[in-house]
Amino acid sequence: MRIGVMLDYSGGFHEAADRVVALETAGIDVAVVAEAYSYDAVSQLGYLAAKTSAVELASGVFPIYTRTPSLLAMTAAGLDFVSDGRFRLGIGTSGPQVVEGFHGVAFDAPLGRTREVVDICRQVWRRDRVTYHGKHYQVPLPPERGTGLGKALHIINHPVRERIPISIAALGPKNVELTAEIAEGWQPVFFYPEKAQSVWGEALDAGRAKRDPSLGPLDVMVGTSLAIGDDVEDRLAWVKPQLGLYIGGMGAKGRNFYHNLATRYGFGEVANRIQELYLSGRKTEAIAAVPDELVRQISLIGPRGFVAERVAAFAEAGVTTLLATPVTTDRFEAVRYVEDLKAVLP
């Protein structure tokens, strides 16, 4: 099992980058930079590429609607170049509130667009002349839709690799099935090991049945909060604001993927309460309503023996990469948590 870290998008990037440098020395395998509607992840990944030498760097995630497929491929190739072949392209759909509300782009056909984006990216990296006649993307643009002067081109540079690994953030059954079919990695969120099979097992099996063997085994990359010790019970509360935001506020009623996931985990009644509170502006109450049980089961927070048991549960559920977020403001404590985590890996 690999260990990585997920960098928050809320600010303090220089401090976070220094933490990655320290954690690279401690032996982490991958650092993932989130984007959402904060600073772009590209500039931060380029900064990390210059500050590190061995750790894999990944986007987590670039929304597919905000860049053309060819630009996604160019960006990934550029980051792979400046990092000497250490980049992983993480993509996802984001959600309609961000895509339409912040970018002014229609949130449509997430499954079809994801498949076509992956196809086009791989054409670019192979240095094929990009010619694609999909339902959602036509490259070059057909004459009747533009000037008629578009021509098939290949990327000028020679990418470091013609197959940059792609991970897809997916939660819904159809998205997860597609990911297991076409991507090198899958990045779910709020992963509850004991519930994973009932929620995603059928979709993963269906996707793997259609998977090209050349892709290799699916890398299941799971984010989790991390604090190891006999006196870290209070750190559960540190995780609740994010859960309250995502379950309660990351989407409208009926279109919140994270609320749906909590419901599928068996927390439907409390998820409804969190959403009701959050959307009515009672955010503090919404955060307080997040149950300790949910936080504890999706996190690695507690004494070393408990964390070892949870790591074993994640491994049993098929997780291959743990993306830990140390729940601390102390860089040295963060390093200690990661070192302790490495010591209990199966």
Automatic annotation (TrEMBL):
<keyword id="KW-0560">Oxidoreductase</keyword>
<dbReference type="InterPro" id="IPR011251">
    <property type="entry name" value="Luciferase-like_dom"/>
</dbReference>
<dbReference type="GO" id="GO:0016705">
    <property type="term" value="F:oxidoreductase activity, acting on paired donors, with incorporation or reduction of molecular oxygen"/>
</dbReference>
<dbReference type="InterPro" id="IPR050564">
    <property type="entry name" value="F420-G6PD/mer"/>
</dbReference>
<feature type="domain" description="Luciferase-like">
    <location>
        <begin position="2"/>
        <end position="320"/>
    </location>
</feature>
<protein>
    <submittedName>
        <fullName>LLM class F420-dependent oxidoreductase</fullName>
    </submittedName>
</protein>
<dbReference type="Pfam" id="PF00296">
    <property type="entry name" value="Bac_luciferase"/>
</dbReference>
<dbReference type="InterPro" id="IPR019951">
    <property type="entry name" value="F420_OxRdatse_Rv3520c_pred"/>
</dbReference>
<dbReference type="InterPro" id="IPR036661">
    <property type="entry name" value="Luciferase-like_sf"/>
</dbReference>
